[in-house]
Amino acid sequence: MKKFAILPRDLSIEDGELTPSMKIKRRIVEKSFAAEIEALYTGTVL
Q1: Is 5 a domain residue?
Q2: What is the pLDDT of residue 14?
Q3: Nearest to 9 by CA among 32, 39, 42, 27
Q4: Which residues partner with 18 through β-bridges?
Q5: Domain around 38
Q6: Greatest Cα pair distance in the chain
Q7: CA 41 from centroid of its chain's CA atoms
Q8: Nearest Cα to 8, choosing from 25, 28, 27, 33?
Q9: 25 located within any domain
Q10: How many whole angstroms separate alpha carbon 6 and alpha carbon 9?
Q11: Contact, 31 vs 38, CB < 8 A?
Q12: If you placed Cys at 23, which of 19, 27, 34, 41 could pair as Cys (CB 3.0 to 4.6 Å)?
């Protein structure tokens, strides 16, 4: 079974999470949503 979470907001270029060509900057997204990612692996959903 795959787990997923809906983020509380959209990713944006202004927040540095997307490049101008709309590619995801994974390291920044991982830092911004660390709690949500951790919850997926621990089994608790926020």
Answers
A1: no
A2: 95
A3: 32
A4: 24
A5: 11-46
A6: 34
A7: 14
A8: 33
A9: yes
A10: 8
A11: no
A12: 19
Q: How many domains does the chain have?
A: 1
> Are 11 and 17 within 8 A, CB to CB?
yes
> Mind listing the pLDDT tens digit of every residue in the chain (46 residues)?
788 889 999 999 999 999 999 999 999 999 999 999 998 888 665 5
Locate tokens 């991982």: which residue? Answer: 30
Among candidate residues 25, 3, 5, the one with its CA nearest the CA of residue 16: 25
Cβ neighbours, 10 Å, residue 41: 8
Tell me, letter by letter, the H, E, C secondary structure of 1-46: CCCCCCCCCCCCCCCCCECCCCCECHHHHHHHCHHHHHHHHHCCCC
Write down the pLDDT at residue 43.
Answer: 65
Q: Identify whether 1 is part of a domain.
A: no
